[in-house]
Structures are given as C-alpha cells and as structure tokens.
Amino acid sequence: MSTKKGTDIRPANGKLGVLLPGMGAVATTFIAGVEAIRRGHAKPIGSLTQMGTIRLGKRTENRSPKVTDFVPLAGLDDLVFGGWDIFEENAFESAKHAGVLTRDDLDREKGFLESVKPMRGVFEQSYVKKLSGTYIKTGTSKMDYAEQLCADIAEFKRAHGLDRVVAVWCGSTEVYREPSEVHSTLAKFEAGLAKSDENIAPSAIYAYACLKSGVPYANGAPNLSVDFPAIHELAKQRQIPICGKDFKTGQTLMKTILAPGFKARYLGVEGWYSTNILGNRDGEVLDDPESFKSKEVSKLGVLEHILQPDLYPDLYKDMCHVVRINYYPPRGDNKEGWDNIDIFGWLGYKMQIKIDFLCRDSILAAPIVLDLALFMDLAQRCGMHGIQEWLSFYFKSPMTAPGLYPEHDLFIQLMKLKNTLRHLRGEELITHLGTEYYD
Ligand SMILES: NC(=O)c1ccc[n+]([C@@H]2O[C@H](COP(=O)([O-])OP(=O)(O)OC[C@H]3O[C@@H](n4cnc5c(N)ncnc54)[C@H](O)[C@@H]3O)[C@@H](O)[C@H]2O)c1
Fold first, then answer.
1. Is the CB of 364 under 6 A from ligand 1?
2. Which of 219, 268, 275, 277 is nearest to 243 (CA)?
3. Residue ranges of the alpha helices (H) in 289-354?
4. Whole-number CA gyration radius for the chain
5. Is residue 10 part of a domain?
6. Atom of ligand 1 nearest to the CA of 83
7. Ligand 1 pocket, residue 24 CB under 6 Å
8. What is the 3-state secondary structure (H, E, C) of 136-173?
9. 52 and 125, same domain (yes or no)
C-alpha cells in the first residue's frame, strides 16, 4: 500500500549553477547541447530526465507521467554554466578544438558559448602527464588552492544570482592511485592539504572545495576524486550528496546491456576482448599508462560483477576479459570500439559475437552530465547525502557504501533509479510481481 507521503522536497526555485571542472569535449558538448535545446534547435535525446516517463501504480491505471512532471527538477532555462580549465579557451573555442559538434551547430550557439569562460584550474602535471596547463592558479599550499576554489564558487554564485550550485567533474583522467593514509580521515586529509601532501590529486582538491561550499559533486572520470573515506566523512558532516565514478558510455554501456542478457539465459562466456581507437584529448591522456590504469580498473570490474563467476563457475569462472585503448589521432572524438565475445551454449557448443561500435563518446556523455546535474540538485533538495547509489545507472564504476559490491546491470540500475523517484513521491515501488495469478 502506498503511503502517498513521500519526502519533503524543497522547490527548485531560482537559478541552478552547474560547475564543470574540466571544460573539454564532454563539458562543451553538454553546454552547447543544452543551449541548442533551450533555443528549440534540438531535442534532448539520451537524457532520462528530459525524455523519460515513469510508470506509476498498476498497469491498468495507465499512469506514466514524464519524469519532469513527477519530480521537481530545475528547468533547463534556469541552468547557468561555469567551470575551470587549465587552458584559457572559452567554451566555443574549446568545443571547436574538441571537434565533436559540426561548425554549423557551434556557430548557431556561438555568442552564448563564447560567454562561458573557464576560471583558472588547479593542476599538477604528475597527475596528467600528457598535458602542460598554461592557465593555472598559483598558491602556497593545496589548502590555499582549495580556499581559492571556494572563493571562485562563492563569486560564481554571487555574480549570477544563483540559488544553488552543483558540480560534475569533466576533467582529464588522472593517474591511478589507491587511497592512502592521507585519504583515511578528514582530519588527516586537511592536514595533508595544509602541507601539500603529494598523494592529494587536483580532482580531490576540487571535490573538497565543492563540499565545503555546500555543492553536490559527481565524478565523471575514473580517478578517486570523491571516492575515499575522508571525503565521505565531509559529505556526511555537511550533508551533501556525492556520486561517481566514470560516465558509462560506449563500450561499457554495451557490456552492461549485453552481459545481463547472457546471464539471464545462462549462456557461458569464455572470453571478452575489447579494443578501442580514439583520437581526442581524452585518448591522448589515456595514452599514458598511468592514466590508462585508472580507466582499465574502472572498465574491468563490470563483467565480474554482472556475471558473478563465484555463483556460476560453470559459466564464467575462467572468463578472459581484456580491455585495450589505443590513441589514434585521425579518429578524433569518433571512437571505434570492437568487441569479440566468445560465448558457449547447450553442451558447451561455442559461438562468437562481434560488435563494431562507431561511437561518439561525448554525444553519449553529454546527456549524462545533464541528468546528473539535475538529479544531484534534486537529491540535495530532498536532504539526501553521501553516496547516491541510485545514480549508478550513469557510471562505469559506481561508488557504493563500504563493504557493498556495485550494481552494474543497467536494467537493475534503472529500476533502482526509478524506484527511488517513486519512493521520494510516496508512490508504490514497482517490483513487476504478477499478482494477477493469485486473484
Ligand atoms: N567522453 C566520454 O564518453 C567519457 C566517458 C567516461 C568518462 N569520460 C571522462 O570524462 C573526462 C572528460 O572527457 P573529455 O572527452 O571531455 O576529455 P577532454 O580532454 O576533452 O577534456 C578534459 C578537460 O579537462 C581539462 N583539465 C585537465 N586537468 C584539469 C584540472 N586539474 N583542472 C581543470 N581542468 C582540467 C583539460 O584541459 C581538458 O580541457 C575524462 O576524464 C574522461 O575519461 C569521458
């Protein structure tokens, strides 16, 4: 029985600032897209918040409102964009450089895009070896950088008369690091900031500044950023929602669509070989083995968690899973991802599936940035804080509470997301149980 009570949700009054640390291909494709949609030049394809509906009650009730009519989300007209980068280009120049959208599409939004200018970034080259930033802050310590970022956020809010702000990390993938001692508690992390501990990455300084400023933070890259105990402690203390990691686009999206299907039909998987060529700046950064390691770890976990070899050793125990990314400049942002999947069926007979996905990475990522910005703002207005697992749907490597394994199956993730929205509005959760058999 539905209580119809739901959660008290603060209304989405006023303007919502969307801060993007890293204003490259994904961020500018997102900004240009939102502006094109606002001006009636395009439709928000790929965005659950803008295109999705949600079924309520029994199928016979025929109630399927649009998500935007069901939960109070910020409207696109109320979004204001800002961010940081380590290059000075405005959003128009950066988008031109990224080469995702056509010159015609960019020219149509030129004036607006030129008005979106990055603030100076916090950067340390040992974390992104392939880039040499030219537009970066100077400071006396990592704590000083964090304070400068807090001042940027306050000024952004003041200058645009914003009611609320959210942040989505769209910066380059940093080198792989495990959480260390300095990441273990907030006190140690703050002491580490003060003495510029080398284990604190720039992305973690942004995350810290955002949470200190009351800004929810989503992490679109695989590096730690908001995935360590000290920052979880801060999110709890300040009651701020956080989520990550690594936008689920391209090949991993395909994996999390297909693998649940194989498992549902008890088909075995002997091997899954994935390789990509891409030629954008992200590809260049990932050409460095240490940045690639962050990506590899993020991509490899997916099959293991979906297929559960411990539960189904006959089907998946010895599966060989390989992921490769090759930087190939002629391809630009138009990645090509090949998958060769060796599966087996009845009596162990072998079959092969080949996928050749001519993908546009940033086209798949941009609507994710939009949905995350709107849902993180909703979460904040609902009083939800800490890791937002219901947003796992959007991530390759979803963050979870300590001790829990991440849910990777796209369809379970979608059900969890929509049931969370139902719960917020006091509607019955949908389990797909066929009660009609018992009437
Ligand atoms: N495109 C996708 O589909 C996709 C999918 C999953 C994850 N991602 C991740 O999203 C991120 C952005 O991807 P992209 O294709 O836009 O890359 P990009 O290289 O075009 O943009 C990244 C931007 O971040 C800037 N940057 C780097 N370090 C910074 C710092 N410390 N502070 C501020 N800015 C900084 C770079 O100058 C660059 O402009 C990458 O980490 C990528 O791995 C992208």
1. yes
2. 219
3. 289-307, 313-316
4. 22
5. no
6. 33
7. yes
8. ECCCCCHHHHHHHHHHHHHHHHHHHCCCEEEEEECCCC
9. yes
Maximal C-alpha separation, the chain: 72
The residue nearest atom 44 of ligand 1, judged by CA position, is 247
Q: Residue 249 — φ and ψ, nearest 5°?
A: -130, 180
Among protein residues, the one with the nearest Cα to ligand 1's atom 9 is 221
pLDDT digits (tens, 9 = 90+) for 203-255: 999 999 999 999 999 999 998 899 999 999 999 999 999 999 999 998 899 99
SS3 439: coil
Bridge partner residues of 168 (DSSP): 218
How far are the Cα atoms of 68, 241, 378 from residue 71, in angstroms, in the given order?
6, 17, 8
Cβ–ligand 1 distance for 211 under 6 Å, the answer no
The total number of structural domains that make up the chain = 2
Any ligand 1 atom below 6 A from CB of 170? yes
Shared-domain flag, residues 178 and 222: yes
Q: Closest ligand 1 atom, CA of 295? A: 43
Q: What is the pLDDT of residues 304-337, one digit of tens each?
A: 899 999 999 999 999 999 999 899 999 888 889 9
Q: Is residue 85 lining ligand 1, measured as CB closer than 6 Å?
A: yes
Q: Both 399 and 378 in a single domain?
A: yes
CB neighbour list of residue 363: distance below 8 Å, 6 or more residues apart: 29, 46, 100
For residue 331, being part of any structural domain is answered with yes
Co-location of 50 and 161 in the same domain: yes
What DSSP string runs through 373-384? HHHHHHHHHHT-
By residue range, what is the domain housing residue 388? 16-247+363-424
| Cα 127 to Cα 20, 77, 200, 208, distances in angstroms | 18, 36, 10, 17
* CB of 280 sitting under 6 A from ligand 1: yes
User: What does pTM read for this prediction?
Assistant: 0.95
- Regarding whether 30 and 156 lie in a shared domain, the answer is yes
Residue of 84, 172, 360 best suited for mutating to test ligand 1, as the one with most atoms within 8 Å of CB: 172
Under 8 Å between Cβ of 246 and 196? no
3-state helix, strand, coil in the chain (%, to 5): 45, 15, 40
Q: Where does the pLDDT of residue 4 fall: very low under 50, low under 70, confident under 90, or very high at 90 and above?
A: low
Of 15 and 130, the structure prediction assigns the larger pLDDT to: 15
